[in-house]
Specification:
Blueprint (H helix, E strand, L loop, with lengths): L2 H31 L2 E3 L1 H6 L11 E8 L5 E2 L5 E7 L4 E7 L11 E10 L2 E9 L8 H7 L7 H5 L8
Parallel strand pairs: 1-2, 5-7
Antiparallel strand pairs: 2-4, 2-6, 3-4, 4-5, 6-7
Length: about 160
């Protein structure tokens, strides 16, 4: 092989090796900080065989159960229940809730799982309109007749079932 071609091949190989290493390290670093999105049912059943562990950072999306919002009169602490089509998960949050936050509405909370059914949130996001639902939750609820959140929380069936 021509020495000039050999030198080019060596330079190109080194560049590809360095880029591959940089991309690999970046992907590894990102895998450590990705927040997985869970629904309340997936907190208990797991997602793709992975049940979240206590202390894990995660995002949860669901509907706020009507009548479950409890506010502390002396601080900004608030707790509420979330439901999708299964069990209920309690979310605690300390701060000002978004203006669009209401009972019976969909929200997404980011926080740490402190018990198997309790999340200590550090961020709460509310949906923007009546039709919005997180894509993962919409996929879970596809093909299931709508159950009002208050009825779902108590296991009751609604008239359109």
């Amino acid at each position: 092989m021509n020495p000039r071609r050999q030198k080019r091949l060596l330079v190109v190989s080194a560049i590809v090796l360095v880029l591959s290493g940089a991309i690999g390290m970046t992907l590894y670093a990102l895998s450590q900080s990705i927040d997985l999105f869970y629904t309340p049912s997936e907190i208990f059943e797991g997602k793709d065989g992975n049940v979240p562990q206590v202390g894990q950072r995660l995002r949860i999306g669901g509907m706020v159960v009507p009548g479950s919002v409890k506010r502390n009169q002396e601080s900004l602490a608030v707790s509420f229940d979330l439901v999708d089509i299964g069990p209920i998960v309690t979310v605690s949050y300390h701060g000002i809730l978004p203006d669009l936050f209401r009972e019976g509405q969909g929200i997404v909370a980011t926080g740490i799982l402190t018990e198997s059914n309790h999340i200590e949130a550090h961020e709460v996001l509310a949906k923007h309109d009546e039709e919005y639902m997180p894509p993962e939750l919409a996929e879970k609820m596809k093909g299931i007749k709508h159950i009002k959140p208050d009825a779902a929380a108590y296991g009751a069936k609604t008239s359109d079932n």
